[in-house]
Amino acid sequence: MIERHTFDFLKELIENNNREWFQENKERYEAARENVIAFAGDWLSLMKKIDPGINENLDAKKCVMRIYRDIRFSKNKTPYKNNFGVSIPAKGTRTGGAEYFLHIAPGNSFIAGGYWMPEAAHLKAIRQEIDYNADELKKIVDAPDFIKLFGQFRSQEQLKSVPREYSADNENIELLKLKSFVAFHQMKDEELFEKDVANKIAAACSKIYPLNVFINNALV
Fold it and tell me: Which end of the chain is more exposed for a tag (fewer CB within 10 A), N or C?
């Protein structure tokens, strides 16, 4: 589970996002990070049983994203993220493709999976897969259990115009216009403090697994 001290650290970081405060609280950061790594290890072990495409040798520590922000090209010059992120690639290593993702932030924690904002070549490949095998995708995202957890898949951001390779009267145009292919489930802070939360998150991700398989099959 995620410890309350991890959330306490993040809450204070939001109010004190500067290098001086961070250095003074470096031990608290390290304790929070170790808590997230330990949790990532529990979650990763469960996910390897659900998704055989996950690299068997993947280290939980490498799944925890850096808290340091790249501010070189950003107007926001705060040096640290106000969250911890854990990313588990659904196939091999993180080279672009479907993933399982956990965002840990006070008041804004969530589980997600799929592929957010694919690069142009991957987006084209996924749309082609949808055009060829839309029924397979619809079977996944229109399943009652999927909708109950993640809402309407088609409600994600779409292109305003029709992709040039397709016609407006295509029966699957709503899916073909999507910019991202993501399942998203918001979590309450208290849920992350429960002892069995890793099992609950893995169970939710088991519903994302068929979506990730569909996406990664498009990228082969």
Answer: C
Give the C-alpha separation, 88 to 186, whole Å.
18
CATH number at 4-218: 3.30.930
Alpha helices in the chain (DSSP H): 4-15, 19-24, 26-50, 60-63, 120-141, 144-150, 173-176, 189-192, 197-218
Residues in the chain: 220
Q: Whole-model pTM? A: 0.92
The answer to whether residues 141 and 153 touch, using CB atoms and an 8 Å cutoff, is yes
Summarised one tens digit per residue, pLDDT across range 109-154 is 999 999 999 999 999 999 999 999 999 999 999 999 999 999 999 9
Inter-residue contact 116 to 77 (CB < 8 Å): no
